[in-house]
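Quick question, first post here. What does this chain look like in 3D?
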Amino acid sequence: MEEYSSAKEDRIICPECNANIKPLKFCTQCGISMTETEKVTNKSISEKLSEKRDQSSSSPMEDETIKSIKSSGEGLMKGLGGLMNKSKKRDKTMNPGYLVCDSCEGYYQLAKDEKPEDFTDECECGGRYKHQMKL
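> Answer (accepted):
Ran it through. Tokens below.
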């Protein structure tokens, strides 16, 4: 035979739906968690993030590594900048080449500000011009 308790079981009120329920981990009426949890706010998230940042920035070895990487990157960028400047200077002083006819072998030397695309491909003799850097 089963024994029934005559005393009323402990009950709690759900803060969400006000249901009178048994003390469980969740409300059997609305389903919310009945365990006490910390309310998450923007302020609490910001505080935890700043604590993490403070802990992670305390490593002197990591700071030196980051500084080393930054200085290497800056040196690399300066080097690339110098290389680009040199290539621009060469472009200005470089001979842009010649348009040479494949039939009569006549040619036209391009000026520094001219490109092969500025001209038609057909020579006066009916041949086709080809761009060459040297004759």
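The beta strands are 12-13, 20-21, 98-101, 107-109, 129-132.
The chain has three domains: 10-39, 42-93, 98-132.
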